[in-house]
Amino acid sequence: MRILAISHSAILEVNRELFAELGRRGHRVMLVVPSRWKNDFGAWPLQPEPLRDSGGGRLSVQACQVIMYGRTAFQFYLSASYANLLRWRPDVVFIDEEPWSLATLQWAAFARIVRSPFIVRTNENRLRTYPWPFSSIYTTILRHAAWISPVNAYGMDVLKEHNYTGGSSLLPYAVDTGLFHPDNAQTRDPSTFHLGFVGRIAPEKGLEMLLQAVAILVAQSDQRRFAVHIYGTGAETYLTDLRRAERDLVLPTGVVHWHGAVAHDQVPEVIQSLDALVVPTIAYEGYKEQFGRVVIEALACQVPVITSDNGELHHLVKETGGGLVFAEGDVDVLATCITTALDRPELLTQMAQCGHAYVRQHYTYSALANQLETILQQITKVAGR
């Protein structure tokens, strides 16, 4: 099968593994990525990373100039290679962009020109009203998409609320278990319990809650040694506010460690060094966690998680059995969860093993490719291709 895939996140090699796996299964995949992209905190635009895994030579990457790069809703691809893509005539177009974006409308129109069905993968998990022209784009995509796959359960509810009647199923994120795995050689100091946060540092991530929970444990004169490690970066003004909050809570020196940004290929080692990962997300300005990829990364490393119930997080923990969940923003319950982790190491080990086994079965790229292949075969059969 010839698959044309469009994904701005695949500008990074780490986000191409699904397409490489499809290539290894014999499919021809042309992956279109922007020639540059800028995230919220990057000082410089990202450039397409070299293709290190071509899926046995069946995956190729085409970088295209994008106007309004870094703005998901407004991005629009400018390509001089449309003629080549038209001649290639894909059997299906896979659009890994939001259904209300200009890019999705653009590639849906391309799919119509080559008479190929198209599938859209979406992170959306909130029922929202979109201004024109995005409301019109959304309606058009819902009418013409052969299939729409949210990455989370809330996304399925959103489609129902918009009266979408086409094909749909979950298509979540996956984890590279060759990169994220237990480190049997890892040795931890049994006298210190290491908690950690890994990710983007922003108000919605709830780090104030974590600092306050630690302050509660300290105030309770808990004599056990524990350390909190925070890995990530964010807006400098917000980082300053967090440091000020730490000082105001009068936390003892050596309890909280700020490590800054960490490269993706170093994340496994960071997670493996922890006794538990904490994800204290809150509904800041209505924010809902769309998936929580770091949760399945931690469980792949056999590290249990402590998360809030924001968005998809509680679904992941309930499904995998890999950790503890507290009501978002409830600092006292978060502190109780940390105390439980400290008091019951056997429970922590059980959750880690349970979550690890589940992720190995359901959240690998092989499992994800199986799901996507089933969808692609179904929609191309209906389209008679």
Q: How would you describe this protein?
A:
There is one protein chain. This protein has 385 residues and is α/β, with parallel strands linked by helices. The radius of gyration is 22 Å and the shape is elongated. The mean pLDDT is 92. It folds into two domains: 2-174 and 364-383, Glycogen Phosphorylase B (Rossmann fold, 3-Layer(aba) Sandwich), CATH 3.40.50; 192-362, Rossmann fold, CATH 3.40.50.2000. Helix 3 packs parallel to helix 4 (134-144) and helix 6 crosses helix 11. 42% of the residues are buried. An eight-stranded mixed β-sheet has the order 4-3-2-1-5-6-7-8. Strands 11-10-9-12-13-14 form a six-stranded parallel β-sheet, sandwiched between helices. The longest helix has 19 residues, at 365-383. It has helices at 17-24, 82-88, 102-113, 134-144, 153-161, 207-219, 236-248, 267-272, 293-300, 313-320, 331-343, 345-362, 365-383; strands at residues 2-6, 28-34, 59-67, 76-78, 92-95, 118-122, 147-150, 167-168, 192-198, 225-231, 256-260, 276-279, 305-308, 323-326. The chain contains 13 helices and 14 strands.
What is this entry, summarized?
The protein has 385 residues and is α/β, with parallel strands linked by helices.
Major sheet: order of its strands? 4-3-2-1-5-6-7-8
Order of helices and strands: EHEEEHEHEHEHEEHEHEHEHEHEHHH
In this structure, how is the largest beta sheet organized?
Answer: 8 strands, mixed
Q: Which word captures the global form?
A: elongated
Individual helix count: 13
